[in-house]
Amino acid sequence: MADSVPSLARDAVLKESAALPEDVPQIRGYDFNQGVDHRALLHSYLTTGFQASSFALAVQEINKMIEKRLEPVGRDEEQQDQQDCPGCTIFLGYTSNLISSGVRETIRYLAQHKMVDVIVTTAGGVEEDLIKCLAPTYLGEFSLPGKELRQRGINRIGNLLVPNDNYCKFEDWLMPILDQMVLEQKTEGTHWSPSKMIHRLGKEINNPDSVYYWAYKNDIPVFSPALTDGSLGDMIYFHTYKNPGLVLDIVEDIRRLNSKAVFAKSTGMIILGGGLVKHHIANANLMRNGADFAVFVNTGQEFDGSDSGARPDEAVSWGKIRMDAKPVKVYADASIVFPLLVAETFAPHASRLTVDKKGD
């Protein structure tokens, strides 16, 4: 009849639902009528949805790494460095822009209290930390014209500004160290690798604001297979004209990094950004048939086939994350997310993580 709803439309719109499992969380956000409680606000993210829920799952995944890391374990005789092997070896990777930003202080906190076991970063991720010990980075705007900045000798990193004089100061500081490294190579037979060079630079900077000072103090290896791809490379290039002969062995470092994964009891990956650092850590974990835990934080998309944007499940297909793992990717700016992740994971466990590991 003309006054009846067509059955086709009714059935399409009013289709009955199958019952969801009883343990499926219901969506509910934070109620500010309870007052301003930042911890409770972050806890509510689990049932908020979208990337808020991904953030909460990342918190859970990192806390699993921490709990596993705190499990008492014996010494692994196969480990080349013969140090106590933690229950979970945590690999932290990040791109240089995060060191340029204020996330540097969050990363420094982790190194200062030896909360991570292995660091992988880019050349900029090393040099920007050291340069900040010599001169500051400033807040600018994304929209500042590149031509005008170039004429003024100001370099822009997003909305951060780095006077080019900072790199001149870096050259003045670095050149004598390179001279000494060449001398030790020639007279003492020192076999330099990128990680050994970073260790030395952390010692030489002797500044508690530095990530790599604390990596040096706490003997946290820092790997950077593309160490020449930045200002460090520029200075090494200039140095070859003054005092040639420095050799950095990346083969030694790849064995050392891969061994950290191979001989680990279990492993966790926390990777901020993409590119080299993401793949270098993941590929090391391939050597043990995959990491047990993984958290990626980046804004990359997978549709272009890049490793930077790939979801964790692609790494599972390569054997870089274990098939029974529950990895998490948070699609977000790490400058917002990572300090909050640390606030919900490492920082609350600080008293347990830093027993007998406190820096000077």
Textual characterization of the structure:
With 360 residues, this protein is of the alpha/beta class. Helices cover 46% and strands 11% of the residues. The chain has helices at 7-13, 38-43, 50-69, 96-100, 103-112, 123-132, 146-152, 165-188, 194-205, 211-217, 231-242, 250-262, 276-286, 312-318, 334-344, 350-353, and strands at residues 89-94, 118-121, 138-139, 154-157, 160-163, 222-223, 267-272, 293-298, 328-331. The chain has a 6-stranded parallel sheet, sandwiched between helices. The chain has a 3-stranded antiparallel sheet with strand order 3-5-4. It is built from 16 helices and 9 strands.
Proportion of residues in helical segments = 40-55%
What is the tally of beta strands?
Answer: 9
Order of helix and strand elements from N to C terminus: HHHEHHEHEHEEHHHEHHEHEHEHH
Annotation field: number of helices: 16
Termini distance?
Answer: 86 Å
Q: What structural category do the secondary elements indicate? A: alpha/beta
Question: Low-confidence spans: pLDDT under 50, at least 5 residues?
Answer: none
Strand content: 5-15%
- Radius of gyration from the CA trace? 24 Å
Sheet having the most strands: 6 strands, parallel
Shape type? globular
